[in-house]
Amino acid sequence: MISPLPSISAESAPNNWAPTTIEDFSTSQKHRIRSAGFQFALLDTALRDLFNRWKKNRLSPTTAATLDNLFGAESAAAALSDGPTAIEFHSNEDSLKVIGSDQPSIADPRHWALLHLPGLRSWWTPVLRSTHFESLRALVPNAWTVEDAKLPPGSVIVGLDIPDWSHLPRCIATGRRFVLWERVSGSAVEIQAVSAPQSGGVLIEVPACAQRLKANYVKTDSRIELKQLQIHR
After folding, report:
1. Is residue 79 part of a domain?
2. 174, part of any domain
């Protein structure tokens, strides 16, 4: 299992997982768990289109610059798949957030940040349809591209309500936890502040966790269905 969150073990001991039934979850969580495999297959298709437009210089200069910072010269579409086989979630009350997957594209924090990028909302909505777009945004942790570009006077970073990264301690003081993922190392560490933004960095808000879940999916014909659900003890 791949996860950008340092507190999540890449491989949990098999005897730490026990079968559970989806009937133990709320109606909204049942729907999100069942549909997550299909939702991320849609995202992979949309990402292929986005990266193709980037390669052909069909994106706005601002969005293209963000993708340049996030992916550099690497092939952004190389790790995309046709659908997941396993996804791990943090569950907390009625919230459900992806924290890892056996598919690199689902666990890539850069893809999470792109879903939350305000400049891409008008592109995602028609490509994914607004319902799938909002469902995917709700499934992935809050994530922000860390860039050194200054915001216009009076503007704030959406979701953090701060004018620049030096004010992040204000958010941490309220009890929120963050990790900073760096493209060069491919790893993340929990932080207290972002003092020197690095190109390609992604700030991830660690989702609250009351329970860890692992959902296994199977692809049959054109459908991706839930095969097994496990709970972490």
Report:
1. yes
2. no
**Residue whose tokens read 């970073």:** 157
Q: Are 157 and 171 in contact (CB under 8 A)?
A: no
Give the pTM: 0.92
Cα 65–Cα 71–Cα 76 angle in degrees, nearest 5: 115
- Name all contacts of 185-192 with Cβ < 8 Å and 24+ positions apart: 187/4, 187/6, 188/4, 188/5, 188/6, 188/109, 189/6, 190/6, 190/7, 192/168
Distance CA 21, CA 61 (A): 47
Is 165 inside a domain boundary? no
Kindly report, residue by residue over 121-161, the tens digit of the pLDDT.
999 999 999 999 999 999 999 999 998 778 889 999 999 99
Between strands 17-19 and 223-232, the pairing is antiparallel
Are 94 and 26 contacting, i.e. CB atoms less than 8 angstroms apart? yes
Which helix (H) or strand (E) segment is 227 a member of?
strand 223-232
Residue 53: inside a domain: yes
User: How many domains would you assign to the chain?
Assistant: 1
Domain residues for 29? 17-143+209-232
